[in-house]
Design goal:
The chain contains 10 helices and 9 strands. Strands 3-4-5-7-6 form a 5-stranded antiparallel sheet. Strands 1-2 form a two-stranded antiparallel sheet. A two-stranded antiparallel ribbon has the order 8-9. A hairpin with a 2-residue loop joins strand 8 and strand 9. It is an alpha+beta fold and 336 residues long. It has a single domain, classed as Transferase(Phosphotransferase), domain 1, CATH 1.10.510.10. The radius of gyration is 25 Å and the shape is extended. Helices cover 31% and strands 12% of the residues. GO terms for molecular function: ATP binding; protein serine/threonine kinase activity. Pfam families: Pkinase (PF00069). This is Protein kinase domain-containing protein.
């Protein structure tokens, strides 16, 4: 499901007549995006915190296998509390209309940023890779395989990237609806084992990480574009096109894009790329010889705040008047 996509004209879309106005007490104020599994809306918690509510399509909600898997994935996603993920805040997996609420992340998606401003500089890509790897390490620790890591599922927040929509694709996998025009995963960013219909593991997400890094540095998918069948064939049988990938990233991206998912071919663990924020910044500066700018789109303006966001009212400061000292009087002349 595509979520929180920031386009050229902004991320917020007005609600249409077919869109609901409330979901389980949450008042919807705008539409953030839509995808094959449902739509995403902007709302607020009672405390005023903005959230992104993913409303599942009715035909998915009516599928018994999907409902079972969706409930399992939501329970697992609630255990993910990483710094570079969007945590699950609320959900309803029992009612006829299933939905999931995650923290709203202000900022464009990587896909929108690259489409509007071009490829990212190398220091920003190094931070992007480290943030995504740390997010995958937390996601895999919760027993979840993302299965659909792509540029539109990576948001560029002011303090680092955010990986979203983890685990949602598994709920739709192998249900009765996957053969009715709904694709689980994005073909251009699939791993060879995923494209061939074999079992997916954490290494599948590492392959996607390499594809996302290549896209961020070149502005194009590593295995080209075109029909889904052609792209999937190249992913399984051909080598990626890394012509525009900078030399500083070539070894890392090449290892992530190894055809075999066996341990040692790709990065054996997603935590291999992760490090502390200080180490990431110093590593990027040392490799490139320049300072790191984040977010990479900051020269083009900060992300806009959500519409109709509740304003924080500050109590007025009392004005205290300091007593003025008495003026010294003129000395009186003594009477003669």
């Amino acid at each position: 499901m595509t979520s929180q996509q920031q386009g050229r004209d902004g991320v917020f879309q007005p609600l249409e007549e077919s869109d609901p106005r409330t979901v389980a007490g949450y008042r919807l104020t705008a539409k953030l995006g839509s995808g094959g599994m449902g739509k995403v809306y902007l709302s607020y918690t009672p405390g005023g915190r903005p959230v992104a509510i993913k409303v599942i399509r009715p035909d998915f909600s009516e599928d018994a296998e999907f409902r079972r898997r969706f409930q399992q994935e939501v329970q697992a996603a609630q255990r993910v509390q990483g710094l570079y993920t969007a945590p699950v805040i609320d959900s309803d997996t029992e009612s006829a209309q299933q939905w999931l609420a995650t923290a709203y992340v202000p900022g464009p998606s990587l896909a929108a940023a690259v489409a509007e401003h071009g490829p990212l500089p190398v220091p920003a890509i190094l931070l992007l890779i480290a943030g995504m790897a740390e997010a995958l390490h937390v996601i895999h620790g919760a027993g979840i395989v993302h299965r659909d890591l792509k540029p539109s599922n990576v948001l560029l927040a002011a303090d680092g990237p955010r990986v979203i929509d983890f685990g949602i694709a598994r709920a739709a996998d192998a249900t009765s609806l996957t053969g009715s025009g709904v694709t689980v995963g994005t073909p251009a960013f699939m791993a060879p084992e995923q494209a061939a219909g074999r079992a997916v593991t954490a290494a599948t997400d590492i392959f996607a990480l390499g594809q996302v890094a290549s896209y961020a540095s070149t502005g194009a998918p590593a295995f080209g574009e075109g029909t889904s069948h052609g792209v999937l064939y190249r992913i399984v049988h051909e080598e990626p096109d890394l012509t525009g990938v900078p030399e500083e990233l070539r070894e890392l991206v090449t290892r992530c894009l190894a055809k075999s998912p066996r341990t040692g071919r790709r990065w054996p663990r997603s935590s291999t790329c992760a490090a502390t924020p200080t180490a990431r910044r110093s590593c990027a500066a040392r490799r490139t010889g320049c300072r790191v700018r984040w977010p990479p789109t900051s020269p083009y303006g900060r992300p806009r705040p959500p519409p109709t966001a509740p304003r924080r009212l500050r109590p007025p400061r009392p004005r205290l008047r300091r007593p003025r000292p008495p003026r010294p009087g003129r000395p009186r002349r003594p009477h003669r």
